[in-house]
Design a protein that fits this description.
The structure holds 2 protein chains of 2 kinds.
Chain A lengths: L1 E2 L10 H20 L5 E3 H25 L5 H7 L9 H8 L3 H30 L3 E3 L7 H11 L13 H6 L19 H32 L2 H8 L16 E2 L6 E4 L6 H9 L10 H8 E5 L7 H8 L5 E6 L6 H7 L4 E9 L2 E3 L3 H12 L4 E4 L9
Parallel strand pairs in A: 2-3, 4-10, 5-6, 5-7, 7-8, 8-10
Antiparallel strand pairs in A: 8-9
Chain B lengths: L4 E6 L5 H9 L17 E6 L4 E6 L6 H11 L6 H10 L1 H6 L1 H11 L3 E7 L8 H11 L3 E6 L7 H8 L5 E4 L7 H14 L4 H35 L2 E5 L2 H33 L7 E2 L10 E6 L6 H22 L7 H23 L1 E2 L2 E2 L2 E6 L7 H17 L9 E2 L5 H6 L3 H15 L7 H9 L1
Parallel strand pairs in B: 1-3, 1-4, 4-5, 5-6, 8-13
Antiparallel strand pairs in B: 2-3, 7-12, 9-12, 10-11
Helix pairs in contact in B: 2-3, 2-6, 3-5, 8-9, 9-10, 9-13, 9-16, 11-12, 15-16
The chains are: A alpha/beta, B alpha/beta.
Chain lengths: ~375, ~450
Amino acid sequence: MNNTFDLHPLKLSWLIVSIGASLGFILSWGSLTGDAQGRVNLFHLLVVYMLIPILSIIVSLGSALFGKGLNLAGLLYAIPGLQRKSSPQWVKLRQYHLDKFWLLMQSQAAALAFSIASLLTFVFLLLVTDINFIWRSTLLDATDIFPFLQWIAKPWYFWQQAQPDFTLLTQTQDSRLLETHNVASNLGLWWKFILATQLFYSLFLRSIVFVSLRVWIHLTYENDFEIKLQKRQIKPDIREPASPNQSIITHQLIPPLVLNNWGQVPRKLISQNLRSTQADAENLSDEDLMTRYFIDEMISDPTATEAQQYNTISCTQKQLVLTRAWEPPLGELEDFLKLGCGYLCPMDWQGEQLQSLKQSDLEEWQRLLEQLPNWTLFVNKEYLPHE
Amino acid sequence: MNSPKFAVVGHPNKGKSSIVATLSHNDSIEISKRSGTTQQAQCFEIKTTHSSYELFDTPGFQRPSKVLAWLKNQAKSADKRSQAVQKFVDDASCQQLFPDEIELLKPLTAGAAILYVVDGSRPFGIEYEAEMEILQWTGAPSMALINPIENSQYVEEWERVLVQYFRTVRVFNPMEADFHKQMDLLNVFAHLQPQWAQKLKLVTQDLELKRLEQSQQCSIILARLLEDLCHHKTTQKVLSKAQANLVEPLLKNQYLKWMVNREQKAIQEMLTLYSHYHTQIHIEDMSLPHDLFDCEQWYLWGLTKNQLMTSAAITGAAAGSAIDLALAGSSLMLGAVGGGMVGLASAWLGANKLVDMRLQGLPIGGYDASFGPISHQNFPYVVIGRFLTLYQKISTRNHALREILDINPIDLKEKINQLEVSEQKKLHLSCDKLSHQKPVEDLNKILLQILN
């Protein structure tokens, strides 16, 4: 089953490539077979192997950079019956602004196929038949043409045997009426020059354009913001806090205790909190209730004086430490708790009314007391979290 | 010049990490209801195109009274206070006894400004005074942020306290502060240290530009999504109509799955664009029509009848041209014309026979079973409406938030009515083209109007 939209921008269209190869084969074969004597016009070969490739490179690149793009693949895609411009693949190419350059790359692939087919045809015909390279001109003679050929051959200056030779040029001038060839065997000597022309102007230049286009298309695709976003989607690791053990909660206090109001809880709220834990507490006054529970009271919070702090540290009685439930337990409190024993009671209130603890606040205190075995968490049932 | 540095400090669990996550647009910062999650100072560099600044997430104060007592023992006069803080940070025994305060004060002694955070929904307590005093001792430029975690009940009370210790006091809720409020806060940061002003100004300018760029990129994501969803179809080549009917459920299933995945991909891209790597989204799947099955004949190399006729005409014309060439033009191009016509006619007449023909046992024609594309004219609007809702939620979501994003698509009609008439026309025309699988020029620019 085929799902559309899997974009491979560098994939070649083998139909277009095979059209290029066929054209290369037909044109080369047509140009190289020559007339009945196997005579092939050197100028015709220069047109096929140099002029057409260079012109097509200029036209394709120029039109791609400054216009809508005129090239073989573009022309094929413009044929009404064959056009696939509504195809999902084409839509994708357009989305990435690669459509014009994708067609150009396909055309360059076709041109490369043209060059390779031409080259193979040339080599094949050199092997199996005699090709006689000649040239004809009404207006030009060898002295006019030779500098031009030298200029053409400059790119392969290091290959002496493929350089044009003035004597050979003179000897290979042909006329359809006059017999001009002194040495017939010389007529085949141009093959190295023609081969070099093919290799450089047809194959090498085209390969550079083709490879550059592929690189450019690849980079454009990879640099598209959507592709970059997809690469960024790998999720970074996130630290998951380990779920800590929690201490149990008691709802009963066993007196006698020493009251330690660490969280500066209003006095009225302390008795309010204790009252509902006692069945017979309704008729007791606040003071009586406090007396029932507490044999002493001390101050040890961070605002306490040194003397007050000393007293609490040296206390061996069980304590009831009151804290503000919403304030997380600080190290200071933990340091203090390590020195004593008893109950810890986190309380939450709004104005003058006690309210239920929040689950997250309660868990904070449970977590703290789990590490302090001498302490028990006391919470009045009435104020347990509702969540 | 060094980058501006800010250390976010305060009591545990007052939203320090949330503030850092929101301002740094980083949703990987650990935020927990448990206190003590941050145990070490962590530096987050906020880099923009032309500038940068650093935010330090720090542990909360644990033993402020004891630390203050230690400092007071070290410095008897005001001129020695900042040195005492430095001594505290460097002291080996203090590093053992007060690890949280050491981590917290380190960035301050290294030149960071103070962003002191308190909870505006809970009352001030006397124990906070020690913290604020320690921070004063550092001599670092400072500012207080009141974070109304649950409500703003005690904001005024806090303001009265904080102005006594800090030059600037602002209310800032990292869960709700929109982009403009974040930029306002950055502008306030610039006043803390005059030499940072230019760098921070560049940061805000860059972030504002980035914001615009993100909208534009979202419009491109939407344009691509729309085109993909409107053009998509799933196909399978089969030999007979009976086989085509058999594969229909498979095609349908695959088609629907692809459509859902494609939308998910766009959502993920948008989340990534806004650096929401961990956000989970709950959105109901698109309801898609179920009558999208089709079955067409195909011929050589998978061509449709029209393509086959065109190819045959071209091939015939090419062969005729070769004859014309051989006759050196004396045929008056009749070869090309005749060849083209013969090719066309033979394809037209013989196409149906190709379906049943075989080449060395292999069929050279058959049927193309397909599911999709959707041609309903409302479909593009449905896609736009869903995306727009997501865009509005994601682009304004703060990075401190951790809950699942629940999406209920909005009414697109209202949003379209807010556009100018010419923009509305462009949008309707584009949607019409999309529903007919036709290309739309500058679709992202048209859609950007709706996103804005």
